[in-house]
Design brief:
Mean pLDDT: 93
CATH superfamily of the largest domain: Thiamin pyrophosphokinase, catalytic domain
Number of helices: 5
Order of helices and strands: EEHEHEHEHHEEEEEEE
Low-confidence stretches: none
Number of strands: 12
Radius of gyration: 18 Å
Shape: elongated
Helix content: 10-25%
Strand content: 35-45%
Distance between the termini: 31 Å
Length: about 210
């Protein structure tokens, strides 16, 4: 099972949702529930304080969604975190977060930080942020295969920990062998795969991977 979570980020940054329509169940977060309804995608559940919708829109959400989890605005977790916590408990094959970029930068940074949560908890559940031009995910130390995608030409790597040790990039335009990359470094920005597949590996640390197109 895959779980898709749609938050209330700017709709202009969303990928074509129809591409994912039948690939997993859908969870709406706050105003993202309305976006699902408008795209004829049935939310299985909804999470949020719903402070960004009108009373009329909330009535529509209550009519369309059977399982509505409503919270007070004053809480310790964001709406997205509450939805992600539930999704992780289901132990799915993959979790995708949509509507998590654009708009307020504090929301963006909070959503990126949520990607670290399953890695720190040693949960082997891939979680991705996907928008119209990017896919973002986080990996613990290990070796990973990565496929060339003409629609996502650029691959960038960012240390999440103080440093990432032993970073090796194979079949990349700018290869690395057993390199230590400290946090704050821009060494690994805008790399490109030069074959159908490549690998990245590292021995210590946590790494954020961003696949992008212009």
């Amino acid at each position: 099972m895959k779980i898709n979570i749609l938050a209330g980020g700017p709709e202009i940054l969303l990928p074509e949702l129809s591409s994912y329509r039948n690939d997993g169940i859908w969870i709406g977060v706050d105003r993202g529930v309305l976006t699902l309804i408008e795209n004829d995608i049935q939310p299985a559940m909804a999470f949020g304080d719903f402070d960004s919708v009108t009373p009329g829109e909330l009535l529509l959400i209550e009519e369309k969604v059977k399982e509505l989890n409503r919270f007070k605005p004053e809480k310790d977790e964001t709406d997205m975190e509450l939805a992600l916590n539930w999704a992780l408990e289901q132990n799915p094959e993959k979790i995708r977060l949509f509507g998590a970029t654009g708009g307020r930068l504090d929301h963006l940074f909070a959503n990126i930080q949520l990607l670290v949560k399953p890695v720190l908890s040693k949960m082997h559940i891939p979680v991705e942020i996907i928008d119209k031009r990017n896919i973002i995910y986080i990996k613990p130390s290990g070796e990973y295969r990565i496929k060339h995608d003409k629609n996502l030409k650029y691959v960038s790597f960012f240390p999440i920990t103080m440093e990432v040790k032993g970073l090796t990039l194979i079949n990349f335009k700018y290869p690395l062998i057993n390199h230590t990359v400290p946090i704050g470094s821009t060494l690994c920005i805008s790399n490109e795969l030069i074959h159908d597949y490549g690998t990245f590996s590292f021995t210590e640390g946590i790494l954020m991977v961003v696949r992008s197109k212009d």
